[in-house]
Every structure is written in structure tokens, then in C-alpha cells.
Amino acid sequence: MAAFLSGISIVCFAASYAVALACEASRLVFRSGVRGFVMVGFAAAGLFAHTLFLIWRAVDAGTAPLSSPFDWYLLAAWLLAVGSLYLTVTNPKTPVGLFLLPIVLALVGAATLASREPFLNDSASRFWGRIHGGFHLVWSVSVVLGAIAGLMWLIQAGRLTRKAAPLRGFRMPSLERLAHVTARTPAIAAWAAAAGFVSGIVLNAVNHRRGLIETVPWSDPVVLRMAAVVAWLIIAERIAATVRRRPDGARTTAWLALLSLAALAASIAWGVLGATRHGKPPAAVVLTATVHEAEA
Amino acid sequence: MTLALVGGTHRTVPLALRERLAFTAEQAAEALGRFRDRFPGREGVLLSTCNRVEFYAAGERGAAPPPPDQLVSFLAECRGIDATSLGPLLSREHDEAVARHLFGVAAGLDSMVLGEPQILAQVKQAWAIAQDSHTSGPLTAGMFQAALRAAKRVATETALGRERVSIPSVAVADFARGVFERFEDKRVLLVGAGKMAAETLRYLRDAGAQDVVIVNRTAARARDLAARLDVTPAPFSDLEHQLASADLVVSTTGASDHVVPLELFLRAEDHREGRPLVVLDLAVPRDFDPRIGGRPGVWLYCVDDLAAACAANRRSRQREMPQAVAIIDEETRRFMGDMHHRSTAPVIEQLLAGWSETGDAELDRLYRRLPHLAEADRTEIRQAFERYAAKMLHPPLTSLRNESRSGPPHGLLDALRRLFNLPE
């Protein structure tokens, strides 16, 4: 069993998601009676492998989800993959996967570039670290879902404005349903991002007070960027609340959701590619571990 | 001839005559009872809809279906119409053409609106009436079952019936449903009550609409219409207020000018709290000022917009025709193959009976010569004989089945009869 689990690689589930995405995209080209089964089959197989991979990470490395940037990205991708599969099964005529699976694949791709080094493993840091990572997960997933709903809203509204019949096999949800999602996600994203930011400050302060070498400098680009993202999400939430009862409120909210996704993408790109101490184990712990290893 | 068809459709029979020729379910049952008495041993199914009246007859082995002229006279007699005026308008088909026609009819390929699904239920009902009237037998049962299978394949393997082609259905399914997820909590406002209002309302009710208000210039007419359509009447002077509270408007007045000018709408818009509004302006000339369609949150569709979508859907259905026809051809070949194979049954039965009789006689002779054989040995020998007979007969029977696929295997049947001296 352990040999089987350890044999599952990122490529296994990424390839399954990619095939499911290709099936979704083929809706635009031709019609098929079996495509739905193939698509759901590959998405389910990918999700199954993805789940086993996360379980194996927890068992083998003794790390729970969110214990490293690598695990964080994979868990975010897993949540979106679950949502994609659920929505595909419950709304077979709606090409949800076409919008969600690219983001799932992007997160899996980001995971391969992210650090696998675990965060601090003592109880206080672990507690605040999980709160910090959990809130980040919530706001990121909310922003992705809101942006996808917003994009679908704009596509559907464009079709209705052009007075064109829906494309065969490519039926979008109603504007009402999409507006319902885009109207709720800004508040969730803003509050979760704010809570994630505050919990990150607490985590950093705890580490600092415990005499460890500084974990993340207060002037670290990630701290400044996250502060900007939180500010943007709060502003976006306020704008969305203000325009909610205006005739063009849904359109404005849809664009705000897309801008929030752009902010999230920039944030992830910066986190993965930029020079930062964020998400890396504190130097003191690394040094201590190295000394222990040398003594052993 | 095993299958026969006499019938007329919207393409061949004028409406006035079609109305006289049409059968209700009770009249159809009565006519089939009369058919059973007059043509004993034959099978018959009567399909009568607003666009077609068709009589399918079948029979075999000395009870062939009645000739087409007799069927025409029979139909004319049932409906009290002069057969000489009806005869030239009805088409006549036999055998494979009958099956092909029925399969096409069941799949909606012969309907006035290509691919419409209601015809399938009507075909099922016609067959059910024939079964109840005891005029459906193995031939018509096989043919109607095959027709239902063909229709199902066309429905699932092509998109022939998927796109809507009537203005009210397109308005509701492709546009109103694109804006609203559900209609149970939406207010529908009918402005005027033209013919399309009632049909659109039917689609909206199917979608869940419950809160429906009607305004009409004449209060008495509004009350009449409200009672007829089971909706709430409101005075025409209340139009602005009703526009403010409506989510979907269906406008079908006969007014010569805009019933809802931009200024009136802007006043109502101030009280709408940003809720989206779908307007189906089905009136000609238009009831809503077209500039209203440019307001944010307003989705305004006039008859031309919807007609264009309908035409696009119709073209889309037409594109599916070759695939649907290919399915009908395939199912027809399959059914006719079964039919032809079925016609070989008497010869096969005779052949098997002959071999069995000869085998039994030889076995009896053998058992008499070898009386010491145990029962188990006798059984073994009998089974060996049977296996031998089955293996010897397998190639000719397979050839018969294969030959049946391309038509009645008269040549092979004749050869078998002559080779094995089988009676005609």
C-alpha cells in the first residue's frame, strides 16, 4: 500500500486534470455522447490521485496540510478540483471545468515551484501558522470562485446583449445565479484576507518574541504586497456593497472579482518567484537542525 | 406485400379536408374495431394528429394487408367522406417505404416543425389504441417498437429537437432563463393580451412563474383576460407602478405607438432598486421604446430579435438532418432484415421438423437393434444425433439470415424447398 501511495506523483493527477480540461474544451468543437463520462472519469481519477497524494504527504512526511507552501498550493488546488467536479456533475451542460481546471493546474504548477520545507513545527507557531494558512486558503478560493462567476456573468451578459442563442453544449448559468456568487465572495475574501494578514502578524510576532532569528522581516515584499491585497479586497468589497442595488451593479462586481483574481495571481507569482523570507523555515531552526544532524 | 400505408399530411391534404378526416381517440378505436371485422387476420394502426392521418396495415401468409384502394375507401367510409375526392390526395406506400416513413414520422423528420417531440407521444398513443382494439399483432408491434427505438436514437444522437424554434419558447428558454435562475419569486407583467402572450405565459408557468399581473387599456377586457388566463388584473393607469415591481414583461398590445416610452420607463426605473428587467416586446409595432434596451440591467427583446434566434435554431436543426436520416436508414435496414428473416420461419420450421422426424425414426431403429443399451447410453446417442443435425443445419440457416438483410431470400427458400422436398 505504501509503495502504491508513494508511487503517486504530481504528474498523475495533473495529467488527469489536463485531459478533463481538454474534454471540456472540445465542447466548442464537436458534440459527443460519451464525452461527459470521460471528462468526469478523468477529473474523478485526478481528484482521487490528488487526495491520495495529500494523504501520503501527511503520513510519510508527518506534515499536515498547510505545513509548507507546496502543501498549501496543493490543498487550494484540491479544494477547487472538488468544486469543479461537483459543479460538473450537478450542472452537466455548464462548462465549469473550462474555467476552474486551468486554475487548478496553475496552482499545481505553482506548487512544483514552491518550497517543500515545512514551516516551524513547535506548537505555538504551528497553531498560528495554520490559522494564517487557513484564512489564506479561504480568501484565495473565494477570489477564484468569485472571479470565475464574474467571468461567466460577463460572457452570459455579452450573449444576451448580442441577442444570440446559447452555444450548443455550452450553456452558462443564469445571470441571477452568477450574480449571487459574485455578490457574496468579496465579503468572504476581504474578511478572510484581513484575518489571514492579522494572524500572519501574530505568527511573526510570536516567533520574534521567542527569540528566534527574525522569520519574516516587516519590510518583506510579501508583507507589503499582502497588505496591499488586503486593502484592495476591502475596497472591492465596499464598492460591491455600494453598487449592489444599482442596475449595473452586477457588471461592476464581476469586473471587481476579475481584478481581485489578478491581484491574487500577482501575489502568488511574487510569492513563488520573488525573493522573500515568507513561507520559508526560520534560519534559527534550520541552523539548529543542521547542527543536530552534524552531531548525529 | 407485408406492410401497407395510406395517409395524408399537412403537405398533401388541405386543412379543411384534414379536419374532416381527423379521428379522435374514440373514433380511432371504433374504426379499428370495424377494420378488424372487415379484414380479419390483418393488423392495423391508425395515427391521427392535427397534421396527419395515416393508416398502417400489415399481414402475411395468406392474409396480406388490404390493397391501398380498399384502405382509402375504408378511411373515407369511417369519416363519411367521398372516397373519390380523398383518394388522389392520399399517398400509398408498401413494405420498406412504410417502415422508413413511420420511423421518420416518429423522429419528427416529417413534422411541420422539424424535430418536434410531441409526435412521438402521438405515435405511442396510436399504437396503444391499436393494441387495445386488438388490431396490433407481431408485425405492427415490431415496426412500432423499431420506430420508437429509431426516434430515441435520433433524439439522443443528434441535436435535431434540442433548439427551440417558436418565438415564445425561445424567448423564455434562451433569454429569460439566461437572466433568471427561477421564476417562482418573479413578478410577470402582461401588457395587453395578444395571441403570443398566452403561449409565452404557458412557457413561463412551466418554468414556475406564479405571480402574474395583466394590464390592458380597457379595464373590462383586462378583467376578462385575467379570468381566462388566471392572472391578476391591474388598471392601465397603474402601468408605471407595475413596471417598477415587475421582473419580466411580456408586451403584446395592438397599439400603433410606444406604450412604454423612455420617459415613463425612467420614472419606473428609479423605484426598481437595480433589479434586472427582461422585456419580451412581442408587439408589432413595438410597445417599448428601443432606447429602453440600452439601459443598464434591462434585457429588451423584440419579435425580430427572437425570430432571428429561431431562424438560427431552425438552421441548426436542418444541419442535423443528414445524421438523422442515416439513423433512420440504418434502423429501417435492421427492421426489414428482421422482417425478411421472419418470413423464412415456416421453411426453417419445416426443415427442422423434417430432420427431427428422420432422426427420431433412425434412432428408434437403432435402439431396436441394440436393446441392451442402457438409458444413459441412449440419451448420449440421442444428444449426438441432435448435435449433428444442428451443426449440419447451421450453415444454411446462417446463409438465410445473411441473405435476409438485403431483401426477402426467395431464391434460397426456393432452393431449400426443392432440395429437401418441403411443401409450399
Largest sheet of chain B: 6 strands, parallel
Order of helices and strands of chain B: EHHEEHHEHHHHEHEHEHEHEEHHHHH
β content of chain B, as a range?
5-15%
Roughly what is the average pLDDT of chain A, rounded to an integer?
A: 81
- Please write the string of helix (H) and strand (E) elements of chain A: HHHHHHHHHH
What kind of oligomer do you see? heterodimer
Backbone structural class of chain A? mainly alpha
Query: Which bin fits the share of residues in helices of chain A?
Result: over 70%
Structural description of this entry:
The complex is a heterodimer of chains A (296) and B (424). With 296 residues, chain A is mainly alpha-helical. Chain A is built from ten helices and no strands. In chain A, helix 6 runs antiparallel to helix 7 and helix 8 packs antiparallel against helix 9. The radius of gyration of chain A is 21 Å and the shape is flat. The C terminus of chain A is likely disordered. Chain B has 17 helices and ten strands. The model of chain B has no long low-confidence stretch (mean pLDDT 88). By secondary structure, chain B is of the alpha/beta class. In chain B, the strands form two sheets. Chain B has a six-stranded parallel β-sheet, with helices on both faces. Classes of the chains: A mainly alpha (296), B alpha/beta (424). At the A-B interface, helix 6, helix 7 and helix 9 of A face helix 8, strand 10 and helix 13 of B.
Mind sketching the topology for me?
The complex is a heterodimer of chains A (296) and B (424).
Chain A: H1 2-6, H2 10-25, H3 35-60, H4 69-90, H5 96-113, H6 123-162, H7 175-209, H8 221-243, H9 249-273, H10 283-295
Helix pairs in contact in A: 2-3, 2-5, 3-4, 4-5, 4-6, 6-7, 6-9, 7-8, 7-9, 8-9
Chain B: E1 3-9, H1 15-21, H2 25-38, E2 43-48, E3 52-58, H3 68-79, H4 83-86, E4 91-94, H5 96-106, H6 118-132, H7 138-157, H8 167-179, E5 187-191, H9 195-206, E6 211-216, H10 219-229, E7 232-235, H11 239-245, E8 248-251, H12 262-269, E9 277-281, E10 298-302, H13 303-319, H14 321-343, H15 345-369, H16 375-404, H17 410-419
Parallel strand pairs in B: 5-6, 5-8, 6-7, 8-9, 9-10
Antiparallel strand pairs in B: 1-3, 1-4, 2-3
